[in-house]
Each structure stands twice: as structure tokens, then as C-alpha cells.
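ENCODED BACKBONE
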Amino acid sequence: MPHGASGGGAGRALPVSSRKLRFSKSLDISGGVFYWTKALRGSSPTMDRVDSDGIWSRGGANVEELPDPFAPLEPPPELEAEQLPPEEQPKRRRRWPLVLYAISGLLLVTLIWLIVTAPLSRALEPLDDPALLILSAEGRPIARRGAIKEEPVEVGKLDPLTSAAFVAIEDRRFYRHWGIDPRGIGRAVVTNMRAGGVRQGGSTITQQLAKTSFLSSDRSLKRKAQEVIIAFWLEGWLTKEEILSRYLSSVYFGDGVYGLRAAARHYFDRSPEDLSLAQAAMLAGVVQAPSRLAPTRNLDGARDRARLVLDAMADTGAITRTRATAASPARPVRRSSRLPTGTYFADWVAPAASRAFEADFGEVKVRTTLDADLQRLAVRAVSGARLGDAQAALVAMRPDGRVVAMIGGRSYKQSPFNRATQARRQPGSAFKLFVYLAALRAGWTPDSMIDDKPITIDGWTPANNDRVYRGPITLREAFARSSNAASVRLSEQVGRNNVLRAARELGISSRLENHPSVALGTAGVSLLELTSAFAAVLGAGYPVQPRGLPQEEDRRGLATLLEARGRLDLRRDQAPMLDLLWAATNEGTGRRAALSVPTFGKTGTSQGNRDALFIGFAGNIVVGVWVGRDDDKPLGSKVSGGTVAADIWRSFMAPALKIDGRASRRCRAISGCPGAARSRASRRAPSRRNGASARAHCASCSSISKNCSAMRAEV
């Protein structure tokens, strides 16, 4: 290459080299010219120069010190990044399209999920927990539970002013927006700022339908975003009339009433198609705050709100201003009697009733096992007792477990806690039923002898309540006198595990400690399960499941075949047990509960006189009574299972047997038992029975068990 050519191009901008283009077809030697020029004119002064060019020199410089013409081309330092051509500029990553794609994908997945899973007809379906009208066994209404929702309404069949009232006060631009109303939201924000609090909402009717039908009621940004998405989806799939119909069919109107049809019947006793202008305005106004503006609770507030609805209808042109002013306020109907929304028995039976009946519109009528007359007697017996500030509970049932009366406390209004089913209290000596039943199973008889003297087990010594120890006595006398020392000794001889097994088999499900004191009833049990255990003795079958709903006839036979129930041996178990229970009631600690008919039962008093119980049966009714304090303080030395509890039991049972009409008719064998005559004789001249008379009475009880099989079959 000529020397002059290289010097002429040293000061000009270099052309872009094509060496970076790997597949360039034309030969580009500009890079080589650059390096040769730099070597000839801009070489370092440290280079060794030669006088003339040779094979080892070029331009007076040694070829070994010249730059490599095949090395990667570096741009001149004077060329900045902004001077590079556009194709040489570094590329910046743009992330915002990825974010946009992610949001779009999320919305698409949400819409697909809504289309596939969210039912459009949810607002038209009945409530999952419908209203229950609880009836007694005779068909008398006794309680109402749950919310009421009637059949859906159709906007096309309503008076146009009825739907116009809701649109005017809840969503004026309902027919002009697509699910959300930015103008309405802005208007609500301004109104609330001026009022200094929340006075107006910005949610549309579509958003309210989305919230009530698909979402929870919590207030969060997440739920609000879901509400907007579902509102758009509803607008795309339903017409405005369908959205409004679903809204009116599901919105809450207070007093446990959902939907316009139920509200119209509840407040005005008419169908929604026949509502007047004033009535429609009042119902439309209630929606804002149903609990506060329900006409049955706040009539003045409901009328003031209805006036605002009429003014809004005039503003939207639905009615004239003159008609809005002339409309007289609506008046809800007065209901002469309102059923209680909860009682002790209703609270107990409601869960089972909800499972037994499918959801439906209106009220679901549920017939129960409660006997209205017996329930009235139970209320009178508890309310008439001298309890001071103590509480009381009562359970009455049939031998097959049908509960016919239940009292969970002295006042449901003051305390809805059900002490018959929820409380776990010490049964005291009433638990001895299982100790003596285990002994009978082990071969003992009521005439067997047991020592009534102090006993110490692991450092613990039980004491008799009267502090009297009688030495060797029969099981009958030990049970009748409720001897603690004899009962603990019997439990240890029979085997504590056998006692606990007897309690479990007869239906005691509460926790029982394997301790010597368990024989004296130191473990907490409920009154309901303890009464069920005594019912098992009367019915000779275990366990007895207490229930508040009648058993259907077609299921009764199948249940009998599939039910794994145990049977008490009539001669070995039931008859001797009846003998012991009769002795305890007629000759022992429960004498105050004895009736003119054969009476069987057992008293119970817990440690420190904190609980007093009497559990027993006569005729065809098994009754358990508990008295105690909620704070577990002692009742006093004069209160025991044989006093106040036995008095309540007798005051209920005496009239109950008279109106029951089934005791003497169904089990005449008990009335003819020699024990009844002996009971009358024992009242005239109480004496200690000898072994011969005891055996005779035990034999008669065997005949009772045999003859009562007809009663059990009839029950």
C-alpha cells in the first residue's frame, strides 16, 4: 500500500468496519489501513526506528512492535456512545409489557373461573340455614329459629314504582352503567367528606348483588377488587332486569327476613306484587341499615328514610313531586303474638333438625318429641322451687330416649346456657348406679353383705355423709343409705375397670378418671347423659340415645336391625337394680320423692354440697333434676339430692303421671308389684327388712321386668 495513501485518512472519522458482520461478502481493509497509519504516524517514541524499510520494518518501525491488524477493532476514544449509529446503541429491557401480560392473564383466568364455577342462580336459591318453626309433639309452635327467605320475585311482575323506589335510592344510574358507577362513587365521596362520616355508599346494585351472593362481608381491598370483577361479569351475562330481580330476591330487610317477598309478607302481610307506593318506599329505605331501620323496631326511623326515598323518586322522575309529598306513611301490621326465637330445648334440637331437613323457601315446620303439657309442668316445678340464687335443670324422657321436657336454667332470657346438656357437674352418689350394676353383673345380689366401715386407699379415706358406720350390711341397705365407704369398698372388690365399663355401656361419654373416688361421682357428667343411663335400666337396653326428633316409622325397623344395642339381663341385672332403686326412693335418702305409684330413683350430692341431684323414673317417664350454682359455690348443708332436688322431681312427676295417661295403662305390672304395698307399709312403720322379705321383693321385681316387655315394645 503506498505511503501517501495512509497519511491522508488519518484525521477523518472511520467507517464502520464490516468485520463484525461475520458473513460479509465484500473485502473491507479500512481496519488494516487504520492500524498501518497509526504505526507510521502515531507510533510511540519508545519504538526503535530503523533508517530504511526492510523485511523487519515498516515506516521506520519494527514490525514486532506494530499493532496486530487481526485483533478485535476498538473504536477510537473520541467516539462516545451517543455518537454510535443506532444499531450500535445498547438495548434496554422493557418490563412493562410483561406486567401487562400478567394482569391480562390473571383477569382471563378469573373470568374463566367465574364462568365455570360461580352459579348465576345462587341469589335465587333458598338459604343454607332456613327458618325452622319448631313444633311440639301435638303440633303446637314452641320456637322459631333461623332466617326466612321466600320464593324469588320477577321485576316484570312487580309494580314499576316498586322497582323504581330501590333504583332511586340505591343506584340512580343503574340502567346506564356497566357494573360500577364512577360518577356515583365520586358523589358518595363528596357527600361523606361534607358530612364528616359515611352517609352514602358508592356501590351499585350489581356490586351489592356480587357481594351478597358470591363474597364475604369483610371490608378489604381484595374483596372490593373481587366485587368489581364479578360485577362486570354479571353485567355481561345477565340483563338489567335479571340483575335487579336477583337483588330484590336476596337482599336483607331486617328481622331475619331475606328477599322482597318475605319482607312484604313479614311487615305488611301482602305479596310484593300488591305493595303500595308508601310500602315500597319504606322497604327500599330499610335496605341501607336493616337492623336499625326495621319498621317493627324503629318505625319513626323507617318513615324518615321512606320520605328520602320518595324525594329521590321525584328527583329521578319516577313520580311527581306532588305525589311524593302527598304519600301517607306506611304502617306495618301488628302481630298479636311472637314466638320465642330460642329456648333451651329449641337450641338443643335445632342442629339435628337442620341436618334432617333440606333447605327450602319459607319456614320449615319441624315436629319434635317435646310434650307441651309436660314442658309446662317442668317450668312450673322449677320456677316454684325455693332455690335462692341457685340454678336448676330438668330433663324428662321416655325409656327409648325421646325427650319430652327440658329446662336448662331458671331464665333463658338471662342465661341461655343449657345446664341440662352443656354443664359437666359431679353427680355424687347418683353415679353409684354403675358401681352396683357392675356388682350385679359379677354375681352379687341385693342381699349380699358388704362392710360399712372406714377404708383407706392410697392415702385417701372416704367418709359417710352422716359419719355413721354400720358394719356389715346388705347391698340394698348400702345403696338406700348411700354409704360412701361401702360403695368404694364394693367398687374396689368388683374392679374399677368394670365400673367404668358399665358407665360407658349405659351412655356416659364424659371423661372418667380411673381413681378410687370415681365410685362417689367425682367425675363431671351432664344431666342428659346421666338421665339416659337411668332410662337404660327402665328399658333394659343400652345405650339410650336422647333425641328431640321423632323417629320415622319406615326407619325404625331398619334402625332396630342395624343398631348394636346391649341388653340387660332381666333376672340378673334389671330386676335387682329395680329393687335397689326402689329401696333408695322409698326407704332411703330419696323418700321425699316417693309417689303413690312404684317409684325408682337415686339421690346424688357432690363434694361440699355443690351439686344436688335426683334421677329416677315412674310409669313411663324418666326424669333427672340438678340444682347448683354456676360459680360452683356450696349450696349449704341443708341442700342435698334428697331435699330440694327430690322436691322438684316429685312436684313435676306427680301431675305428669296424671296427665300422661300411660303409666297405669302400659305397665300395670309395676302397679301390682308387692313392692307398692310394702312401700305403703314402710311409711306407716319403717323397719329394716329381713333377708326373706327382700328375696320375695326381688322375685316380684323379676316379674315386673318380664311383664314390662309389652310396654317397651309399645314405646
